[in-house]
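Retro notes
What went well: the complex prediction finally ran end to end.
Inputs used:
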Amino acid sequence: MTDFINNVLIPGAAGGATAGLFALAFVVMYRTTGVLNFAHGQLVMLMPLGVLVVSDLWGLPVVLGLVVAVLVLAAVVLMEERVAIRPFVQSGHAMPWILSTLGFSVVLAELMAIPYRAQPVRFPWGISAKAHDLGGIQVSWAEIAIVVAFILLVAALTIFDRRTTTGLRLRAVAQDKDGAAAIGISPGAASRLSALIAGGIAAITGLLIVSTQLVSPELGLTFLFNGFVAAAVGGLDSLHGVIAGGFIVGIVGQTAATYMGGNYVQIAMFSVLLVVYLTRPHGLFGRASVRAV
Amino acid sequence: MSAALVVENLGVRYGGVTALRDVSLSVDEGQILTVLGANGAGKTSMLRGISGLVSSTGTVTHHGRTLGRLDAAARARAGLGHVLEGRHVFPDLTVRENLHLGSLLSPKPAEGVERALALLPELEEMAGRKAGRLSGGQQQMLAIARAISGSPSVLLLDEPTNGLAPMLVQRTIDVIGAIQELGVAVLLVEQRVEVAQALGSEVLVLQRGEVVGTAHGTDDDLEDRIHTAYLA
């Protein structure tokens, strides 16, 4: 049992939380715009890379690096929302936003490769990934931090969604853009706010995953597929669905890696996605909109 | 009475298709103007052009202020309420939440909700129900109440009786009459001649995107004239 906890449950939960954080950003953006942001992987890397550039390359304090990175990330997120997402929100076709967000991710990756010439770099200020022994259970602060951060973020966003007027406005836009505009709620402003929230999630995700990973422009892409599967399994319009989606993806992936080998991880995840989509096309917690006639 | 809404030479195009051409009208405070027309006459495009949900040419003036390039949300905030065709309530939000969101346009949101519920008290007992679970008629009442809770000075109503049972049609007519008594300027588009007759309102007839005639809801020969226009 201890082996199962150490080899599957704990790394699976940490991996699931990582996938869940990506899924959370997907869901936040998808609900108000109907767009899956394929550039999110690069946005996740922007925060640690920004801190590295300011503090490692320029030799300025880390705190200043954090501030600069947050500002740059916010600017990039708003730019992407304006040029690569909002123009295609109501086009009724997926292809324009698939291409525009993919294109934006390619441009970002190229720009982010410049400071370190595309070489992976260690992030020296991350949370310790050293495993501690707790009565036979091996767990690191980095694993605990990402799981706790994931659950707290979902809880905070759910409260924001249910208990605040701004959250209610975002839900209104998610359900009916014309209906929202007709009562003075701007779908454009909702899209901007969602992009900033997703950017905030990207910043936190980036700082957490570099505890165990080297910073590189492509790192975010590695997790993008897992995040998409987690969002789809939980339901693309469900905030709390990402908890189930994330942990299912993490545990299934880690089980496959442990007992079958690393080559079977993606096959196992895709199989989960297929089963969920065949049985519940809107995901485990997603809902087809109900409208009486 | 001063003009609450003045529309001059309004035009709406979808790609190469002209849906509305050179429509001009004016609605005073506390007045109802009914625009009658068959399917495809351009009624919905006209309202969407006025409220900014689709881009349009021409001029829309609200209480002397030209709305120009303001988008739909900004026009709503300026006091232009719009009850859309198909109701467009928020299906996963409760009736209470729908009304709360609508009332945020009002300077005093609580009073906005009160005014809406005074007009449609039947919504009070379903306040906790999801809007998507209501019947079509109840959703229509909610859509009207949501717009009224925002205290608009002009209300655009897009075929509010469409698909309703006769009893609910009469209820809707009564509610529109009560909205008029609040001093709101109402621009109503309808296919049913009897609604204009019941409200005794001024009537514009729209056909293939153009105004082809004017009448009054109390005119004896209104129905014949409308049918002639529909079939022309």
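What we learned: The first strand of chain B starts at residue 3 and ends at 14.
What to try next: split runs per interface for comparison.
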